[in-house]
């Protein structure tokens, strides 16, 4: 892949990422049509797979259009612009209406169809070697330009520890998402660190009630995030945050122990970042019962 200069510093929750080759790098793309054995090897060694062009670009953009069209009456989008562009209005948004649509969106049959579209299902059936299960709790996020609040550094098992750890998260950019738009970044080689942290948390959580023990917000974890201070996390492991210029049609999968986060959307065209994150596992593995319902803002996960 071609390296390029960033258009400005990357920041997340008030912390600026160090722009040095020791601290910042690029995700390695994978060919989704490659052999499953090779993809498994890559997944095990990297903790993620950036599956270039797995999905039909037009289908992804059609869903982006469908999603933002639903928000048109809320003031979220710049008047007179095509919803597929997702250009933020910078104006007043009817928060109550927008919230209602966001809650409905994760329940739309069109969203479920998108998540279970053929390329995704076929990929996971081959990857898991059998019948698969899509967690009902599915998330769609839109991120406004310049919003300083980002996803802090975490690994997903913190929220999913009442089921199997043989699961994969899919992060799907719903539209082109160059680095400047604040897509997901990954702490290189962090699957091993996630496993170590989880073992430490399990030991600490041993004396808590069963309900508390699996909670991401118990006394030993507080927020579920390991840290908002992404530069310090990179220093701690003497490693790099890996970023990518995602395109509509890409899907990244990551292990439940791989540490990831997001950065501020600094898109020069003022586009909203739109993405979904959904989780798959083998049908016959244990399913975390807290994830069998649609996402809702108060589901405490
Ligand atoms: O999109 C984001 O900001 C966070 C997504 C995430 O944490 C995930 O895919 O597991």
Describe the structure.
The chain is α+β, with helices and mostly antiparallel strands and 301 residues long. The protein has one domain: Jelly Rolls. 27% of the residues lie in helices and 17% in strands. The protein has helices at 36-46, 57-70, 95-105, 109-115, 118-128, 191-205, 210-213, 230-236, and strands at 11-12, 15-16, 24-26, 29-30, 48-51, 132-134, 139-143, 167-173, 184-187, 241-243, 251-254, 260-262, 273-282. Strands 4, 5, 6, 7, 8, 11 and 13 form a 7-stranded mixed beta sheet that branches. A 4-stranded mixed beta sheet has the order 3-10-9-12. The protein is globular and about 55 Å long. The model has no long low-confidence stretch (mean pLDDT 96).
Give the secondary structure arrangement, pairings included.
Elements: E1 11-12, E2 15-16, E3 24-26, E4 29-30, H1 36-46, E5 48-51, H2 57-70, H3 95-105, H4 109-115, H5 118-128, E6 132-134, E7 139-143, E8 167-173, E9 184-187, H6 191-205, H7 210-213, H8 230-236, E10 241-243, E11 251-254, E12 260-262, E13 273-282
Parallel strand pairs: 3-10, 4-5
Antiparallel strand pairs: 1-2, 5-11, 6-13, 7-13, 8-11, 8-13, 9-10, 9-12
Bound molecules: 2-oxoglutaric acid.
Can you give keywords for this protein?
seven-stranded mixed sheet; 27% helix; 8 helices; 301 residues; Jelly Rolls; alpha+beta; four-stranded mixed sheet; globular; binds 2-oxoglutaric acid
